[in-house]
């Protein structure tokens, strides 16, 4: 049974994760990158990448002034707005709605405007 904790003042119920989550540190990141690079089984390698978000060792590891992952905090774009850019592009190019009645050309960019942007 999942148990939640209720905050008394705002009646919000918080359900803590039952999974034990370790905070990733520099050495763990380096070791995982090496393990992934050395893995020969493609399915296992893909699974490791999916589970950790690490695809291998970075060239930035050569810089001793950087500590992975502490030197790269999550920015607001990746924390909140992930996948917003493709949706906005679809809106601005008139490809977001499947029903043409929902389209509004007020915010759609013309082909020449896209070309001036470089797309």
UniProtKB/TrEMBL annotation:
This protein's name: Uncharacterized protein
User: What domain of life does the native source organism fall in?
Assistant: Eukaryota
């Amino acid at each position: 049974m999942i148990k939640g904790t209720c905050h008394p003042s705002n009646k919000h119920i918080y359900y803590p994760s039952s999974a034990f989550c370790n905070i990733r540190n520099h050495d763990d990141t380096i070791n995982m990158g090496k393990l992934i690079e050395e893995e020969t089984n493609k399915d296992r390698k893909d699974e490791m990448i999916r589970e950790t978000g690490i695809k291998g060792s970075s060239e930035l590891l050569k810089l001793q002034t950087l500590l992975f992952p502490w030197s790269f905090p999550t920015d607001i774009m990746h924390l909140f707005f992930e996948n917003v850019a493709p949706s906005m592009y679809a809106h601005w190019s008139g490809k977001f709605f499947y029903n043409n009645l929902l389209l509004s050309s007020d915010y759609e960019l013309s082909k020449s405007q896209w070309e001036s942007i470089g797309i």
